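Progress report, Aim 2. The chain analyzed during this reporting quarter is listed below.
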Amino acid sequence: MASQDQRQPLVSEGCEGEDSSCEALVAPVLRGGESCHVFISYSSADSSWAHSFIDRLESFRPGLLTCFHQRDFVPGRTVLENMSDCIQGSQKVLLVLSKDFLQSRWCLLEANLSLFRDCIERKPVLPVLLEPCAVPIHLSHLTYLEAWDPNFFSKVLKVLCTPNCHLSSSTVVPFQPPSVYNGKVLLTMSSVDQEDIPTWKTGEFSDLDIPDHLRMVIEDSENYKKAIRMINSVPPPTFCFKNPWVRGGLILLVISLQVPVLLLFVLASVNTHIPVECSFIIIFLMIIWCFMVFILAVNTAYWGKEKGKENLIVMKRRAGEANALLLHEKLLIGCESRTKLHFVYLSLEGCQATFMETFRGSTPPGEKMLHTALLYFSSGYACCVARKHFPFPLPVGTSPGHLVGSVCFCQYVAQRLGQGMWD
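Predicted structure tokens for the chain:
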């Protein structure tokens, strides 16, 4: 949480010295069904800052009516019912975002996202960042205000005193449908052992809890954990050199074989009476030994690299299985490398309907074909969306896909199959 010395100026300075136009601001007229100008939602852990901020608002502009849970919630009703009524009865919604808020109040809104969406579909939402934290995916398209901005109070007051119909060029916009998040990278996750992982091994990813960036879109935590365990279940390669005891024993063997050759070489150097033929034999043995060590090192390195490639392919297949599991969560996982995963928010409903229509009445059916496509292509597709680059140009005249401004999943599958590529 932000410190008190950081918060205090935010509620004490007001608009003095910032912008003389603040003095002329007037609270908008309340329309039918509206009982207040703004509903302010915050975590109880941030109540001290929030109460000071609300007091400052109401004292600076007496006609500005606010609503917040500790004063205006009706006893005997559930928190969600009270929040719904307060949002519906307000002109605007102000969310005080902090780590505590994301773990408490926002989770309540996310628990019934359809109710939250219906309540604020036509109401401007003003996110206020009280401290650095992950902005929820459903608010990421909005411009938020930072509480530590010296002009923070005047900016908030201007927004609250602007009628909703005039907010098209303001810092906030009304709530938008989930389609605006399609194709957004929510998280790039690194493996917990990425710093010291050998070339033939795949990384291990944490499945203890859902990361904060994904908590807002994943409804079933067990599905997420199962998906991560699928990716972590890539079997290790069966090769004796991956065992450190084997590698150590082999090194000792090579050294022991070299000792006699080195002794002969030293003896030949100090004894000038050794025949020339023996000297050539000793040099030849040393060259053979060096060549054997070189071949062994190259083969071991090549084996590690090839096994790493093979394991990455298996890892992508496991990510495909995980994507089939997370399909209804609108989340795809892409394996960028053995130690990096991309989590992309993607709705495949349009592509799913295309598969059902294309393979209607065929064998295998559309559901099976979609599952196969997810298994082989979804990881590579998610990586392409994350990088905003696809390994092919769409043919001229191609009809728009289901992902606005980019290549949709069924287009990607069609193009890769046309290239004879099975990702």
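The beta strands are 36-41, 66-67, 90-97, 125-129, 145-146, 184-190, 331-337, 340-345. The longest strand covers residues 90-97. These observations will guide the mutagenesis work planned for the next reporting period.
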